[in-house]
Structures
1.
Amino acid sequence: MKQIRIVTLLLALVLAFNVNAEIKQVSSKAKSASINKWEVIDISFKGKAKSPFTTDFYATFTSPTGKTQKVPGFYNGGSEWLLRFSGSEAGEWIYTTTSEVSSLNSKKGKVTILDKASEGEKGGIIIPEKDNRHFYYEDGSPYFLMAFECDWLYALDYHNKEGLPKSEHLLNLLQQNGLNQVVMNVFSYDVSWKKDELLAKHPEHEFGGPKDIFPFLGNNENPDYSALNVEFFKKFDRTIELMQEKGIVSHLMVYVWNKLVAWPDMYSDADNMYYDYVVKRYGAFPNIMWDVSKEALFYGRADDEYILERLERFRKANYFNRLVTVHDYGFCKRHPESVDYISRQDWTYALYTNMLNDFNKYKGKPVFNIEHGGYEESPYVVFPGSYINAEQCLKRNYQCAFAGVYSTYYWQGTSWNALIYNPFEQEDGFYKPKFEYFKHITQLFTDYPFKDYKPVPWHNQAGYCMQHKEKEEYLNYVPKETYQYRKEYMFKDKKPVYFKWFNTLTGEYSEEFKYDKKKEFISPWYGKADAVLITWK
């Protein structure tokens, strides 16, 4: 696995750094290191402090054009402290450190950002003013968010000192199937509901209730909140880094209330120490999107006042300007100005209508339905939600997309404590998930960029419709039960109309045809698969 480049500084002299697991020696006279755009670099210092997790330590970086960037430092165990930096402006960035610890104060150095990016690297996720309804990468290319839930990803290779083979296998599957974001927790402990008895026969898939994994000292059953467990975060670094390497965004939920985590009291010193440390340690990664908490107000722990305070803490330490939301629609609805995009959790049968209402209501922000109630079945009954049929779950993702909002895919075999990282290598009879369905939806909205279309419900007849913003071109979602789809009224003049079909289950396109007004549109997969009818002039 490619590693973060490490630059070790002692008394402000650069000694060495690691590139792609090969040590590259840098002259101590150079006092500098080079990285690509958006590549993450760790700059290491030595120092001691009585309260290392609350010690103030940061650096001010100045770009070639005079832009300044504050970069927080953090304690990394022993006598080591790190500045974690990334950026996009090419040229020499000069920095000076500031700290109450004399050995960390007034240290100087420079990092050169080369005018190139690593293969596949596009930068962080942003919302540009020119199109504030959609997500983009920093390099300007559109980001069609297609997320995947995996709460226990942090634990998958936690005890493997050599690497992350299980995580890499799962992330490769996601990457190959168009899933480009993981909705995940920093830490989850266990589920509160009764577990499937079959899971006990497959302990290799059970990750709930870890006895020796905890972000604080002690463990979840006997926590010691006096300090953080640096080793936990060093291992978590590997997961975030691997995700960045594969172009997968971490939708990182700092808290989760319904997974039996023994959190410290709200507003306590331990609570603040943990929260601030997570923001400092992971803010430099371009593949981070922040979320204060999973289901932030659902379980009687937090209230609006607390979440607003957490968001204010984020804003003060979020120096790399990563996007922030709160997984609670009620909160987002009451405080839309406090979040960068609207987080939704809608399971209802009227999903399309509700998502369309949100799209029309929040005209200056993207909307992301993190949970739409579809939880595809797995070998274990983990948490079934309202829908488990794979096609029905997929349909709900399309309902979100055709309403102009983003969505998530949940599979019961990976979303909670049961984590089948290699589902297609399981024994015969074990259910295999339909990951490929999401490769197809991502492909569709790559061929026909999601950002270029807007929902037009007044054109609906038996499905859903999107219209290109600048030309007469329509995407029409046609359920497999729809026998014929009448669309001739959309085209008022006599110009010829062309069309083709897209199979949502196979990703297959039909041939292109010229429309004959004497006939109705009938899907070639009528009764077999939902399809998308693409019409244009």
Note: Residues 5-117 form a domain with the Immunoglobulin-like fold (CATH 2.60.40.10).
2.
Amino acid sequence: MKSLIDWLDHRTGIRRLTREALFENIPGGSRWRYVWGSTLTFTIFVQFITGIFLWMGYSASSGDAWESVNYIQNEMTGGWLLRGIHHWTAQIMPVLLLLHLMQVIVDGAYKAPREVNYWFGVLLLLLVLALSLTGYLLPWDQKGFWATKVATNLINLVPFVGPELQQLVIGGTEYGHHTLTRFFALHAGVLPGLLVLLIVGHVYLFRRHGITPAEPVTKRDAYFWPDQVFKDVVACLAVTVAVLAVVLWSHGAHLGSPADPSEPYSAARPDWYFLFLFQFLKLPFFAGENEVWGAIYIPGMAVALICLMPFIGRWKVGHVFNVGIIFVFLGGAGALTYLAKQEDVAGQNSETYLRGVLSDSRDAQRVTALAKAKGIESTALSLLKNDPKTQGARLFAQHCASCHRYGGHDGLAVDLATDVTPDDLAKRTGMTSRFLSGDAVHPDWLARKTGTQDEWQPVKSILKAKAEGPFDVIASVSPLEKPSAPDLKGFASRQWIRDLLDPDQYLSARYFGDTAHRDGAMYKKFLNRKVRKYDADELKMLDAIAVALSAQAKLPAQAARDQADAALIRQGVQHLIDDIGCVDCHAFGEPDPDADGPDLTGYGSRQWIIDIVKNPEHKKFYPDNNDRMPAFGVKKILTDAEIGLIADWLRGDYPEPTR
């Protein structure tokens, strides 16, 4: 071994290099406050190693980026761990840099002759923030896409060259494939290269000028080895343990739903280390044309002041000023970050933000499950766009919820409640589990959202029932117009039809109590005149009719029951035609031009729903009802594909893959 080392030393001078590295003099001895530089070097090394392996599985294309990250996160062996380490180490780096900067300023290590090295450190901080910004977009999910769009829109405010600079950064006038490739080139090539050069220069200048001892100097000088090395190793291990703990708790890093430029993301926020600037720009002074001051001028002056600290610190009062101003900056940034978080979870716009987070979480979990079960033939976004469970609910909320409800909601709340867990929401929003559990939703937020108005009554009812936690509440806090048409949850199911045939239920808000049909022929001639007088045997006929009519829908959820109850269905059909006389007003089995009510042939089936949504004024539905439900298909409000998604969602006709 000695011969090998002697041979290497003769060719490389390794012994001399080792002595210079390990036996550097430390004035005043080793200290824990000196560990920040070493921990930063360690985390940058970790980022380079994990980044290279992530690069091996990543595709920098707007059509494949999300899919490749999903593969790394959910399919590749250990991919979630690798991605989690890279993500959470990136989260801790700004903290370590700020601690290092504070230590340098407090100890006066920025003063002559160390000014250039200090400026290198400031540039390193800016480079790390730039790496974080560019890396945020690479998963190509909704969160990263819209946060990057918000951030890069500020470039447009740069005086004289703003629009041209913005086009250069995003690769044109639209955010898309070229934006992603440019950010990837910056993140994986340009910025790491600059980072290495700055680190080499920083270390060289550090070794040239030595350590500035922390005052007061109470210990004798010592060498870097072994005392300071031990402290540095312990600090790096502590960082490693902290990162791994968060990675294991969160199972890697969050991946939102695929980026969709056509679907704005109401929860678009920069990552936490830019939240202070996001909140700063909300101050009233920066409204309108003054926005350039909050986005460009004032932050620029703050960075310039930090760079001028070596000159200001030449005087004793100047050093005190520098220490004070850095704490003012950090305190202000911390306060603004806290205010931004509070506004998101309990402020005026909290419902919009939380709804966006919930919707994104629901879509992300759904598309991940679909990709695992069905594979991705085209893109993950197309997989989601063609999914009735997500798109049907969204289309219903947009176009149908002004008149109809779905279980008392606008159609989205049910899916949000069942698809998103409290832990997931807590991770995404920073809210504690106490805030999210049962009836422990923040009382001030809840009081403001519930109020005493009639339109909030469904929310209060849900609270009373404690239905699956607060998600229903959060998802449906936006007041809707009073419903003027039946609630369509369970539409055409046996229970839904049987309740419809109950006179009291018919008059409730769930069905036709708030519609023009309240006093129509259905109620007057049949429910009020006949059904109210039915005895027990006659009510059994209604049960059979509900089963028979529901069988027309061919609902996937009750296919087995329909097959088993074939005899009861035939009996119900007979009751419907002969005993109850539904065919006096409705067509059933064959067209009836004299029918007053909707055709019951295929009632609740996919085609029946599509036909009534496309044109409710058709002669087999409500030809005299043209002032109520729009003809969504005839008027081209919805495409045939969109109407089909609504129909499939209402019928529960979509896959439920195992996660």
Note: Strands lie at 25-26, 222-223.
3.
Amino acid sequence: MSNTASPAASAVVANRGAITACVILAVIMQALDTTIANVALPYIQGSVAASADQINWVLTSYIVAAAIMTPPSGFLAAKFGRKRVLLGAITGFVAASILCGLAQSLPQIVGFRLMQGLFGAALVPLSQGIMLDIYSVEERGSAMALFGVSVMVGPVLGPVIGGWLTDNISWRWVFYINVPIGALAFFGITAFVTETKIDAQAKLDWFGFGMLSIAIASLQLFLDRGQQLDWFSSSEIIVEALVCASAFYLLLVHTFTTEKSFINPRLFLDQNFAVSMLFIFVIGVTYLASLALMTPYLQSLMGYPVITAGIVMGPRGLGTMACMFLVGRLVGKVDTRILLFLGFSITAWAMYDMMGWTPDVSQWTIIYVGFIQGAGLGFLFVPLTTIAFATLPAHMRGDGTGLYNLSRNIGSSVGIAVVSALLVENVQRNHADMASYITPFNPMLHTKAAAGLDPMTATGAASLDNLITLQSTIIAYMDDFKLLMIMSLVVMPLILVLRKPARPPVVDHSAAME
């Protein structure tokens, strides 16, 4: 959550350009890490001997840690000083990045990615708070547009830079690249940013924060490990499910019985905010889960070199950036609900098109469908933030921003875990279904025997098994894209529940990007 007290907002701040450049560097560094590791995943998988579903822990561990630590960032800044916390976050993030690059096993890299997420969570909201403080009210629109572009530069450049580094140097450099960026941001903030006043009376609901953290962490473990351990046939999965349910129950009881809890239950009395929480969860699922699916699809199924995979995935971010600029001008002139309808429709169409993909799909198709999917996200981010906070009382917006972004992060981590588990499970199920037709009595196989697919020979049986595995995998990807399309369509009727504000709201659109 942003610390938006702005004592200097009305006056021109010394070294404002330098401060802006430094905090934007910190933001780009954090945003870059949400996508830069995607194209390197197959290489990391080979280096640490991980399975297809296990390697996605590299993505989900980072997102979960960031989700847990984003809400208390405002408390930490108030208690210890915003500059001090920001410098500590940059130092910890860079140190964790170095450790990720040095990791030799899956547990090591997942643990260091968790550390990266814990420190990185504060970078965006605290940097945003600094930007709000150094620009006047009249200048904040332009400042937040610049801030929004810096947030979106990461997802655009991440796959391209990650692909180039992996192809030309090593996958470890997708983490080492944070060292020079972090060093520049650290020394610049040290030199130019002034410290905020410390509030010794600032308090955090530690019990509520602890229960929420335990619930999120155990849910993620449950989803990540479930497929590998055959779900409830494993005692570990049962324990994780019980811990998640218990922590969530205690959080609910605490929330409704404590005077000032970590989660403000009155937020959900606002109809627009409550519906928007569900929307941003689904957006988190559909966008990052589809990115996690695309990397192995391009590299493993289609045989793309890592740099090519990064280049064809880059236009997603370009589509988002282009439409965010367009939609920023439309908000207030066009009914926000119409913009949301367009955004979900575009997203659903992109997933529908991806359902028909095979490894023969052209690069041009991947690029333009990716651009369209990114455009759908651009149509959703700003309008959804506008309507989410339009009817929320001003004194509740700080709590609402933290919870809103928490929902998006949880959606991203849960989405990646679910589609990865379904992919593995559906490949196995599809393989078993198709293999059941491979018998000596199937007349279709007699015509294939001459092509080296005779199941009665070792070579033919192996060739048939490879072919069946390929087809099973293609169908499994289609099923995952279908699920993401259905999710986008199912929530669309809830747009009708949203209330149009009585007057155009003055809302900080950049809250969607925290």
Note: The two ends are 8 Å apart (CA to CA).
